[in-house]
Structures are given as structure tokens and as C-alpha cells.
Amino acid sequence: MPPVLTESPVPMTLTDEIKTLNDAHVINTYGARSIALSRGDGMRLWDAEGKEYLDFFAGIAVCNLGHGHPAVTKAICDQAQKLVHVSNLYYIEAQTLLAALLCKHSFADKWFFCNGGAEANEAAIKLARRYWDKQGTPKPGIVTAQQSFHGRTIATITATGQPKYHDGFQPLVPGFSYVPFDDIAALEAAITPDVGAVMLEPIQGEGGVRIPGADYWKQVRQLCDDRNVLLILDEVQTGLGRTGPLFAHQGDGIIPDIMTLAKGLGNGVPIGAMGCTDAVATGFDIGSHACTFGGNPLSSAAAVATMNVLTAPDFLDEAVANGAYLFEQLAEIAKHCDSLVEVRGKGLMVGIEFDKPVAPLVHSLIEAGVICGPAGPNVLRFLPPLIVEKEHIDRVVSLLKTCLGDLKW
């Protein structure tokens, strides 16, 4: 006869229950996940079992003001009580205020709103092509960089210069070509007569936190002017104070023709935006592009509140100072870690390259209570909320040292 069970099985945790339901009902495109985050406050997150973490990833550079920021929370609650959504067939007050704010703080004269970064880049691609078509000189070609990342729609994965994102989705959208990042000679050679735009990230995020040389951006801008092509800057990850200035290109001393934003714009509420000059905006007219949810009252109200905090006096200065402090602490670790190849980045966009895959280190840090992530196989990425303070940095650096020691790196 089979043995009689005298003890009850170990009860499932809430995370186990969530995992079981998720595995049964959600398409798995994200791989294995170890924790279920359920609550946040400022720099801190808690999982379903109540374990506390320091957030050094900000939802991939999204929650730039941390979790539950009072100004954003109030804006969301107030707007939800009044009006969540109406069609863009009507004027939307919060959207108009957001557009005016973005114009005030950027080069752009006009804005189009959508749901996220891929849609913002899709809008930029469509605008560039239609602009030249309306000029009577169609130039559909767009040059992007190898190791870039621009989104997951069929056009934006085509724009993304990483073959792993193309696998299984052919045929891709025609007209795209790729050059090495930070190679002005290669870019010059790629701008043939049918090219109408160059689309680049100021810093390559998913590509490993790659920063070009000091003269690159002014050379790119001059080249685009000389060849009469549009310069599109994908600031989805670098924008909204992530690298120091409100927009990364402002630190490089150039002005694009088109810029895309998303991630940090709504501090977690989905919203994307594409801004451009008045001249380029003529590429779109009534009916040429649209988005049902783009810039609706709720998302726009959250973005207005976020922008007001980000543009308050001294806010970004403090974030820059804490970013410099983080780099100083990581530089000290680099002196004593043979596996650490390089620490790079700007502001609070940090990549730490190792000579081996970082997946074990990411897992070890999460187990230790630090939310972080990779940027390619060998790069650990820190993207803390801009409200990070030195005490948070000290804690994470201490835990990073411990994890490196435990892994014998």
C-alpha cells in the first residue's frame, strides 16, 4: 500500500499563486521572473511577501520621480474623478497644457501624443517619410545605428540595429540601413540620395549604455544639414532628466528636427510623445496619423505633474550631483574587481561592463534587495529614480561589493 501522508504540503506563497496564474494565462515573452512586486513608495518597492527592495531600475527609466510621488498621485486622482478619457476629436485641456510645457522646455514647436516609445518612434518614422513625400522629393531611406533599440512594432524593430530582434519577423520594412554607432565616416557613406532621415539614440541604452565621442553629435548635425536630411533623436530612455539635462541632446549642444519621448514622461502612466519643428510638422495633416488613447486626460495630467516637478529649480542639479557620487563609488569598486571592464554613462544612466555574463549578478542583487537589470549580456544597468540620495547609493554599492565577493568576481 502507498505510504500515508502525515504532514500537509508546504502552503503556496502569494508569489507562487501569482506565478501559477501567470504561467497559465499570460503569453511568456519575458522569461523567468523571480519576484512579484506589489507596492512602492519613493525609492522603495515591496514584493508580495513583504520583502523590501531599493529600486535602481525605475521600471526601465520610467519612474523618474520614484513610486507614489505626491504631485503625480494627486494629479492622477483628481483627473480620474473628473474625466479619464475622451477622443482626440475634441480639445483635451491637460494635453494642451502638456504640449505647451514641452514646447517651453525644448526645441520643438509641435507635439503628437501616443501610448509609448515604440509608437512615438513609429510616428517619427512616418513623419519623416511623409515630410519628404509632400516636398515632392520622396526620400524613404532611414539610417540607424548598429546595437540600437527603437521599439517592438514591425517598423521600429526594423529600425533597431540588432538582428536578434528581427528573428522570425521577416520581411521587415524596407528602406532602413545600419552603421556603427560613433562612426561619422560610416554615417556619411550611408547617406545616399534616397535617405531622408538619420535616427539615433543620444546614448544607446539597450545596446549596453554606449556613449559616443565628444565631437560626434556636432558632426552628425552638420552632416544632416549638409546632406539635407532630418535628424531624429530617440530620447525615450535618455530624456526627462535621465542623463543630467532635461533632454540628453541639450548637453551635446545640438538641436534635432524630431525627438521622441516616453518612459519617464508620465512617471509610470503610459504616454509617448513626438516633437518636431513647425517646418517638419507640415508632413502630417488631418487624417495622416492618429492614436485613440494618445494624450488622453489621465495620462496627460500625470505627465503635466511630472514635468512640473522635473523642471522645478534645482531638481535636476541635485540628481546630477548624486549621479556623480554614484560614479565615484563605482570607480572605487572597479579598482578592486578584476572582472569589471568599464563603468560608463551619464547622470543616472549607468552601465557597468564585466568580462562575463551579468545574469548571476543581477539575480544576486535582487536577492539582496536591489532592483536592477542588464543592458546586453555583459552589462549591469543602474537606472535609479532621480530622487535617489547618497544613503541609497551607499547601500546599493555596499550590496554590490558583497555580491561581487560572493560570486568571486
Detail the topology: elements first, then pairings.
Elements: H1 14-25, E1 37-41, E2 44-47, E3 52-55, H2 58-61, H3 70-82, H4 93-104, E4 110-114, H5 117-134, E5 141-145, H6 154-159, E6 176-179, H7 184-190, E7 195-200, H8 216-227, E8 230-234, H9 248-252, E9 258-261, E10 272-276, H10 278-281, H11 297-310, H12 315-335, E11 340-346, E12 349-354, H13 359-368, E13 370-371, E14 373-374, E15 379-382, H14 390-406
Parallel strand pairs: 3-13, 5-6, 5-7, 7-8, 8-9
Antiparallel strand pairs: 1-2, 2-3, 4-10, 9-10, 11-12, 12-15, 14-15
Helix pairs in contact: 3-11, 4-11, 12-14, 13-14
Description of the molecule:
The structure is a single chain. With about 400 residues, the chain is of the alpha/beta class. It has two domains: about 15-65 and about 315-405, Aspartate Aminotransferase, domain 1 (Alpha-Beta Complex), CATH 3.90.1150; about 70-310, Aspartate Aminotransferase, domain 2 (3-Layer(aba) Sandwich). Helix content is about 40%, strand content about 15%. It contains 14 helices and 15 strands. It has a seven-stranded mixed beta sheet with strand order 4-10-9-8-7-5-6, sandwiched between helices. About 45% of the residues are buried.
